[in-house]
Design goal:
Layout (H helix, E strand, L loop, with lengths): L4 E7 L5 H7 L4 H5 L2 E6 L11 E7 L5 H13 E7 L1 H5 L11 H9 L20 E3 L6 H12 L11 H7 L24 H4 L16 H8 L5 H9 L6 H7 L5
Parallel strand pairs: 1-2, 1-3, 3-4, 4-5
Length: 252
C-alpha cells in the first residue's frame, strides 16, 4: 500500500487570502486528513522537510531571497501548484511595474534601501504544473484539486469566460445595464458572484481561452475613458499576453 501524499503549503509576498479561503472551506479538514501535511505555516508550526509530492504556493517572490526560496521549493516538489492571482498572474502588485521601481520603493519606504524585485508570477522563475486563479483563489477549487490529486486524477479548472456562468445562474448582464465589466474576457470557474451582486467582474482570474479583447475594449469605450480602461486591464493580469497591450496603454 502506498503512503500518504506528502503536501506542503507555502506563502510568499501576498495577503494569505488564498490559503485562508482554502482553510475556511467546510471540506478542507476532512480532505487534508488524508495527506501527510509537511508544511503549512498558517495551520501549525511543525515542519517536515522535503521532498514533497505536491506544493501549493501563494503569492509572488518579492525579493532575491524569496526567488531563491521558490527555486528550492520547486527542486523539492514533484508538482507545484500556483495558488491565487499573485502566484498565477502577479495580481494587483504588478501595477507597480508601470512605474519606476526605485521611485516606487522610495515612495513607500521613505529612503530605506530595500531589495525589491520586479513583480512577476511564479512561472517567470520556475515551472508551474497547475494554476488555481482568483483573488482570492476559490477554496472549493483548491479542495477539489487536492481531492483529484489524492485519487491520481488530473485536476481540471474551466477556461470559459465568466459570462457563461452569468448565463447559467440567469444573472442579467451588467454591461447591458451600463456597468463596465471584464466578464467576457475573464476566465470563469468562480460562479460569477460579482455580477450576480451587481458589481463588475474586474478580471481577477486572468484571461479566458481565446479572449476577444478588441471587442471588449470597443464595448468599454462606450462606458469609460481610455485611462480607466487601461487601469482595469492593469489590475490583476497585466502581465498576461492577452491583456498586456491594453495594460500598456495601447488603446485607440
Amino acid at each position: 500500500m502506498m503512503g500518504k501524499l506528502k503536501v506542503a503549503f507555502f506563502d510568499f509576498t501576498s495577503c494569505n487570502g488564498c490559503l485562508l479561503s482554502m482553510i475556511n472551506h467546510p471540506e478542507f479538514v476532512e480532505v487534508v486528513s488524508h495527506v501527510e501535511l509537511a508544511d503549512f505555516r498558517l495551520v501549525r508550526s511543525l515542519k517536515v522537510e522535503g521532498p514533497f509530492d505536491v506544493s501549493f504556493v501563494e503569492g509572488y517572490p518579492g525579493d532575491s531571497h524569496e526567488i531563491e526560496r521558490l527555486k528550492k521549493i520547486r527542486e523539492q516538489s514533484n508538482m507545484l501548484v500556483a495558488l491565487g492571482a499573485c502566484a498565477c498572474t502577479g495580481s494587483i502588485q504588478s501595477i507597480r511595474n508601470f512605474f519606476d521601481l526605485e521611485e516606487a520603493a522610495n515612495y513607500v519606504y521613505k529612503g530605506v534601501k530595500k531589495d525589491i524585485a520586479e513583480v512577476k508570477p511564479l512561472d517567470a522563475y520556475v515551472e508551474v504544473d497547475f494554476y488555481l486563479p482568483g483573488c482570492p483563489a476559490s477554496g472549493a477549487e483548491a479542495v477539489q484539486t487536492l481531492k483529484a490529486l489524492l485519487v491520481g486524477r488530473k485536476p481540471e479548472i474551466p477556461m470559459h469566460a465568466v459570462c457563461v456562468e452569468c448565463k447559467l445562474r440567469e444573472t442579467e448582464c451588467v454591461l447591458v445595464q451600463g456597468i463596465p465589466c471584464l466578464g467576457p474576457v475573464t476566465r470563469g470557474g468562480c460562479g460569477a458572484p460579482c455580477p450576480a451582486a451587481g458589481y463588475i467582474c474586474d478580471g481577477c482570474r486572468g484571461p479566458c481561452s481565446d479572449p476577444n479583447v478588441a471587442s471588449e475594449v470597443e464595448i468599454l469605450r462606450k462606458l469609460l475613458g481610455k485611462e480607466e480602461i487601461v487601469r482595469l486591464f492593469r489590475r490583476y493580469a497585466s502581465l498576461k499576453e492577452a491583456f498586456k497591450e491594453v495594460a500598456e496603454g495601447k488603446v485607440e
